[in-house]
């Protein structure tokens, strides 16, 4: 029986998190016990883990009905796992939180308080990033600056996916069918009243990052390409630049010929010009190709994910 209290869904994407998942579940269940103004469901999305994450979750769910599991047929990636959790959530508010306890569950009550004040999105901003390399901090900063410069949607700096969303934001997200999902950007795009909640990002409780550089680059490309078409205009800029250079070259060559008794000769100039133009053209064709590849992926209209098994949930995507 559902009580009259509002329901909070906590969505936890997990990929090979056997070292932390029991602790995370324990902490979230303890939190759920403490929250007496809301009912809680904990949705663990197992993103095709190849370790014992899923069986650990099953054991926990066997004794704790608030724990629900949605298990993918293979690894579909973090953003898709989050999407599946959002699809499955039936709460009046939904919180996204990482499985590795880098996002401290103790922040959730403060998010709920903001939600009760009337905010639709409460996103955590990181005041401190413990245990993250200088390289990751630097690239993250540079990336968000670039993204905000190129995109019309303002995506707050230093935020991850740790956030609370109201039902109407969740419904808006569910109506966005795109494949290349950059969830934090999509939430910003939706609008409504959004506010930041600073928190200290802890170190990963145990285990290793599931975001190697390759995945991070892909993630950054998704963010950039699905929130901006400005890279397409790069070819115009590059075209203008090379025309200008060519024009300056013509003026120079003519000038030398007309006003001195020398003339410009040599294949070096030719060689450089050919390489320069070739480079410019390949870069712009490559950018075009990135967008076309994404269009191709989009028009195939495959489902975003394949569910292998659920516990306590009906999979739905409507
Ligand atoms: N994750 C996932 N699928 C993936 C990679 C990661 O569901 O393919 C989950 C992972 O289990 C964790 C969250 O996404 O709960 C964030 O991953 P991680 O902590 O490894 O990233 P980092 O904090 O190092 O950026
Ligand atoms: Mg992490």
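Q: What amino acid sequence fits the structure above?
A:
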């Amino acid at each position: 029986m559902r009580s009259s209290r509002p329901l909070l869904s906590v969505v936890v994407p997990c990929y090979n998190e056997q070292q932390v998942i029991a602790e995370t579940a324990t902490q979230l269940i303890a939190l759920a016990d403490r929250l007496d103004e809301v009912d809680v469901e904990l949705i663990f999305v197992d993103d095709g883990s190849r370790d014992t994450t899923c069986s650990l979750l099953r054991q926990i769910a066997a004794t704790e009905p608030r724990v629900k599991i949605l298990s993918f047929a293979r690894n579909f990636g973090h953003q898709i796992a989050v999407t599946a959790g959002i699809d499955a959530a039936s709460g009046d508010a939904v919180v996204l939180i990482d499985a590795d306890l880098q996002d401290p569950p103790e922040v959730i009550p403060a998010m709920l308080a903001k939600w009760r004040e009337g905010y639709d999105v409460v996103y955590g901003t990181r005041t401190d990033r413990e245990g993250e390399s200088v390289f990751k901090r630097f690239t993250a900063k540079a990336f968000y600056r670039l993204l905000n410069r190129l995109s019309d949607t303002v995506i707050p700096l230093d935020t991850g996916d740790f956030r609370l969303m109201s039902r109407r934001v969740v419904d808006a997200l569910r109506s966005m069918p795109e494949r290349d999902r950059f969830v934090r950007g999509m939430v910003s795009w939706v609008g409504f009243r959004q506010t930041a909640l600073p928190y200290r990002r802890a170190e990963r409780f145990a285990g290793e990052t599931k975001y190697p550089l390759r995945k991070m680059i892909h993630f950054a490309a998704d963010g950039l390409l699905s929130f901006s078409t400005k890279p397409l205009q790069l070819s115009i800029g590059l075209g203008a630049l090379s025309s200008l250079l060519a024009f300056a070259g013509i003026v120079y060559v003519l000038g030398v010929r007309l006003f001195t008794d020398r003339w410009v000769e040599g294949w070096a100039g030719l060689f450089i010009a050919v390489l320069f133009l070739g480079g410019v053209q390949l870069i712009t064709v490559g950018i075009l190709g990135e967008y076309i590849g994404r269009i191709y992926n989009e028009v195939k209209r495959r489902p975003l994910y394949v569910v292998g098994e659920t516990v306590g949930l009906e999979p739905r995507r409507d």
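Q: And what stands out in the fold?
A: The chain has a mean pLDDT of 89.
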